[in-house]
Design brief:
The complex is a heterodimer.
Chain A lengths: L3 H13 L9 E3 L13 E3 L4 H13 L4 E4 L16 E4 L6 E5 L4 E5 L4 H8 L4 E2 L11 H7 L6 H4 L2 H4 E7 L5 E5 L11 H5 L8 E8 L1 E2 L3 E9 L2 H13 L6 E6 L5 E9 L1 H15 L4 E3 L16 E6 L5 H15 L4 E5 L4 E6 L5 H17 L4 E5 L2 H4 L11 H11 L15
Parallel strand pairs in A: 2-4, 3-4
Antiparallel strand pairs in A: 1-2, 5-6, 6-10, 7-11, 8-9, 8-10, 12-14, 12-15, 13-14, 13-17, 16-18, 16-19, 17-18
Chain B lengths: L2 H15 L4 E2 L2 H5 L15 E3 L4 H14 L3 E4 L16 E4 L6 E5 L4 E4 L5 H8 L4 E2 L12 H7 L6 H4 L6 E7 L5 E5 L10 H5 L8 E8 L1 E2 L3 E9 L2 H13 L6 E6 H11 L9 E9 L1 H17 L4 E4 L3 H12 L1 H4 L6 E4 L2 E2 L5 H15 L3 E6 L4 E8 L6 H18 L18 H4 L2 H14 L29 H4 L7
Parallel strand pairs in B: 2-4, 3-4
Antiparallel strand pairs in B: 1-2, 5-6, 6-10, 7-11, 8-9, 8-10, 12-14, 12-15, 13-14, 13-18, 16-19, 17-19, 18-19
Helix pairs in contact in B: 1-3, 8-10, 13-14
The chains are: A alpha+beta, B alpha+beta.
């Protein structure tokens, strides 16, 4: 039987691209393990915003559910989509469109790897100040999920660095928001709405970012302490001092204890001076190193494990550290804890082999603890068996407005349906 | 709205928030006829002055029931007509919501009501060693609620970012009249970043009734210099050299000869004689680094032709440097009876070229333009001078002002960097965005405000139809129908 949807997708792709091979832009997903547990029928890899728009218009006409994928590093995050007919890959949307060093901005296609972008910008002495906790992540995926790492403390997260965005809406309409200048208040900041929307509002094809100069020097000052209260005190001491850290991290491996690490960046003399002050602040056997610890900027879990994100008001960080350790003890699990204590963001990893009921118990305990300090506990990733036993998101304020946003952008619920909060 | 409708709504509002909190007297209403952009004037049907978030929500609910538009207003200092009243609507003034709820240095947060003045937050936080970073020039009078609506910037946003980077939580009244919390003290609330969408939406998505802001540690060291150049080209080149060397000053501000003349006339700031341009450069941070970079900055100024450099010896001198800059808009009144304050953005590297073209336009049309700007981030504030008593000058000035905005768009910039779109620039939005872009932005508006009652006519040149509108009433007045009000 002829496949009308496939023909339409291919026709759209072909017409909007300069490629001569008719089947090159859209193909059957048969032989390709595209997403874990999901069997899409088609894969499309458009090479331009215009081609992506044409393909998505065809997908809309045939009522295809669409899941956008980039580097495939976070497809097991959030909930699996309820429906997926077409996987739209950004693998051909790559490269830097524009890098204006004098203006400290770059416009980048969504499929570009964050690590590649780093290498492209480095010769100009500039950086996109976003850590890449997952190697292989694309710029588009980083925006869609809003991942962040240690240096969020100084530079902020995607929402603070994204100054313009090109999006293809679920109906195939191309929309831009923001621009190429850092200072701009013309119109709604759609970039912020798209950031962290998990591909449920549309396809990001291009991003304009604010860049920062690469620091001339950096140093890591660290100290080990035994308990959460001591770690919390060190964090508060560093926050109250004048050492201007770029990052303030804690790591609590399952074996016990805490490592508190301060990243300092700046001029060589400045960093050296602040490092000395930081060593005094941390006290004890605090030490300085040029190199980051092995765990730096990585999530405390591996593929197939359970990963949680906890947030807190800053003063609540010690309580949250304590709650995580208490949960480790009470449930007898090798819980790993790590994160940006200086911004109130912590991550918890549990082995994927942990019993779902145990994980549910830990999530409940941490969610209650986070709530007490004005924060949230969100399960970012978990094996299927665990998902059935836990509420991934916990309480979400403003959910009704979020549903209305989704309804406006994607009235037929075709973009990653079910992946996001409240079944959006 | 008929007089009867207004009386019905006024009664409803008085019942909800108290007799003294509703203004319906025509003369009193006139006080609120414009915001900081005084060329537009509209007298609102009613003014409501809620004293709590609940009262604010009650006012909005009454507007929804009566199908009457509402406009929020803080201190009324906005420069784009964002708080311009609607003739058939209620102006909701947040100036009585002015409590600082909490200064929480341990959380690096402050929780304030929307009517709190920007500078008061910094004053309240300073004893703890913290401050609120966004500092619009009007910071002594502008409100935090207005800052949220406009996503206000300021001289120091070059390094520290804008309001949107410093607001972590809001309580808002939605255009349905519901109180909703977005974000909070902790970062990264789950779900769509509605907080990010709300900040800068110019009152079209609702009204903020409580604002949680980030407090920033006071820098260990602040150093400020004033450098005088023969012209803006040299000052621009010095700016490029500073940024190019990887220095991120807290602020780099530039004024041209005409702006300097005006500032001198108004506040006697004592800027160097014969300067065709001055730069005010401020560095802050750890003392040793500031000292090292300050020397670098001085070097860049000199090598690019600065003929005089003054370094602020103390806080008083620093304040004097800033006084000239921060009073520049008003100061222009000393050299011209009337003027338009423009606000546009260009990529910083295009500065010399754009300034040349502004000078050309000024020469060709015979309209004087004074330039004041945030040179570090390319945010221009050309002041277009005219005399309204001379026929045709106002129109001419308006044309020049529009031509400058076209230049900003041509060079890949923005039609507004910090004053907002409001009433004034809605017409320019299509120059920067396509119909599809604007349509997509309005999807957000339809989600928040399907009835289009929140500050209608602002930001977007044409409203979008939102499809099915819940609760649209026909026939008898809804308040009468509901039996909650009588006709007086």
């Amino acid at each position: 039987m002829p496949d009308a949807a496939l023909a339409a997708l291919r026709g759209a792709s072909h017409e909007a691209s300069s490629r001569t091979n008719h089947t090159d832009g859209v193909w059957l997903a048969d032989d390709e393990p595209v997403l874990p547990g999901i069997r899409p029928r088609y894969v499309a890899a458009p090479g331009s915003t215009a081609e992506a728009a044409a393909v998505l218009r065809a997908a809309a006409a045939h009522d295809l559910a669409v899941v956008v994928c980039g580097g495939m590093t976070k497809q097991d995050w959030a909930a699996p989509p309820r429906r997926c007919d077409l996987v739209l890959s950004t693998r051909r949307l790559i490269g830097v469109v524009e890098h204006v060093a004098g203006d400290l901005i770059a416009v980048v296609r969504a499929g570009t790897l964050v690590t590649e972008l780093r290498q492209l910008l480095a010769p100009a002495g500039q950086q996109l100040a976003l850590d890449a906790p997952l190697p292989g992540a694309t710029v588009g995926g980083t925006v869609a999920v809003s991942t962040s790492g240690p240096r969020r403390m100084l530079y902020g997260t995607v929402r603070d660095l994204l100054i313009g965005v090109t999006v293809v809406r679920p109906d195939g309409v191309v929309a831009h928001a923001g621009g190429k200048v850092v200072k701009n208040v013309a119109g709604y900041d759609l970039g912020k709405l798209i950031t962290g929307s998990y591909g449920t509002l549309g396809l990001v094809t291009e991003c304009a970012f604010r860049l920062h100069p690469s620091p001339a020097a950096s140093a890591y000052v660290s100290r080990r302490v035994a308990d959460p209260a001591a770690a919390g005190r060190l964090v508060a001491d560093v926050l109250g001092a004048q050492v201007v850290p770029s990052a303030l991290e804690v790591d609590a491996p399952p074996e016990g204890g805490f490592e508190v690490v301060v990243l300092l960046e700046g001029t060589a003399e400045g960093v050296a001076g602040r490092a000395v002050r930081t060593i005094r602040l941390l006290g004890g056997d605090a030490a300085i190193s040029d190199a980051a610890p092995g765990w730096w900027s990585a999530y405390p879990w591996g593929s197939g494990d359970v990963g949680l994100k906890l947030t807190a008001a800053l003063s609540g960080v010690p309580a949250l550290l304590g709650a995580a350790l208490a949960a480790r003890e009470r449930h007898g699990v090798p819980l790993r804890l790590r994160g940006s204590a200086g911004t109130g963001v912590l991550y918890v990893g549990l082995p994927g082999t942990a019993a779902p009921q145990t994980v549910a118990g830990v999530v409940d305990a941490l969610r209650a603890a986070a709530r007490d300090v004005s924060g949230h506990a969100v399960v970012l990733t978990a094996p299927a068996a665990v998902r059935e036993h836990v509420d991934l998101w916990g309480p979400v304020e403003g959910l009704e407005l979020m549903r209305r946003i989704k309804q406006q952008f994607d009235p037929d619920a075709r973009f990653a349906p079910g992946r996001f909060v409240g079944g959006i | 709205m008929t007089t009867t409708d207004i009386s019905v709504l006024a009664a409803m509002l008085r019942a909800a928030i108290g007799d003294g909190q509703v203004i319906s007297d025509r003369q009193e209403l006139r006080t609120y006829e414009c915001d900081g952009l005084a060329q537009y004037k509209v007298i609102p049907a009613l003014v409501a002055l809620p004293r709590s978030a609940q009262e604010c929500a009650a006012v909005v609910r009454a507007c929804v029931e009566a199908a009457v538009p509402f406009v929020a207003r803080g201190s009324g200092t906005g420069l784009s007509g964002g708080a311009l009243p609607h003739a058939d609507g209620v102006l909701i003034v947040t100036s009585q919501l002015r409590a600082i709820r909490e200064i929480a240095p341990q959380d690096e947060r402050a929780v304030v009501e929307p009517g709190v003045i920007n500078l008061q937050v910094t004053r309240a936080a300073t004893p703890y060693g913290y401050y609120y970073a966004p500092d619009p020039s009007s910071q002594q009078i502008c409100s935090i609620g207005g800052n949220v609506a406009e996503n206000s910037g300021g001289a120091h946003c070059l390094k520290y970012g804008f309001t949107t980077n410093h607001v972590t939580g809001l309580q808002v009244v939605t255009p349905d009249g519901d109180l909703v919390r977005l974000g909070g003290r902790a970062p990264d609330a789950p779900g769509y970043d509605l907080l990010g969408a709300f900040v800068g939406s110019e009152g079209t998505l609702g009204i903020a009734t409580e604002v949680t802001v980030r407090l920033v540690r006071l820098p260990e060291s602040v150093r400020t210099l004033l450098a005088a150049f023969r012209g803006t080209d040299e000052a621009g080149a010095a700016t490029s050299a500073i940024i190019g060397a990887g220095v991120v000053p807290a602020a780099i501000e530039m004024m041209d000869a005409l702006a300097i003349e005006a500032a001198e006339a108004a506040v006697h700031c004592g800027y160097p004689q014969g300067a065709g341009a001055v730069l005010v450069v401020e560095l802050d941070g750890p003392a040793p680094e500031v000292a090292a970079q300050f020397t670098q900055v001085e070097g860049f100024c000199r090598s690019n032709g600065a003929f005089e450099i003054r370094v602020a010896a103390d806080e008083a001198e620093r304040a004097l440097f800033w006084k000239g800059r921060k009073s520049a808009f008003a100061a222009v009144g000393r050299i011209s009876p009337d003027y338009i304050v423009q606000d546009g953005v260009i990529p910083r590297t295009a500065l010399p070229e754009v300034l040349r073209r502004i000078a050309e336009i000024s020469r060709e049309r015979g309209v004087r333009v004074a330039n004041v700007f945030h040179a570090g981030d390319g945010n221009l504030h050309p002041l277009v001078l005219f005399d309204d008593s001379v026929e045709g000058q106002a129109e001419q000035a308006e044309e020049v002002s529009g031509a400058i905005i076209d230049l900003c768009v041509e060079y890949g910039g923005s039609i507004t960097g910090e004053h907002g779109v409001g009433m004034d620039k809605a017409k320019y939005m299509p120059r920067m965005y396509s119909d599809d872009d604007l349509d997509t932005m309005q999807l957000v508006r339809c989600a928040f405000d399907p009835r289009g009652l929140a500050n209608p006519g602002k930001v977007f040149p044409t409203p979008r139809l939102c499809g099915e509108v819940p609760g649209r009433h026909k026939g008898a007045h809804p308040l009468q129908e509901a039996g909650v009000a009588e006709v007086f």
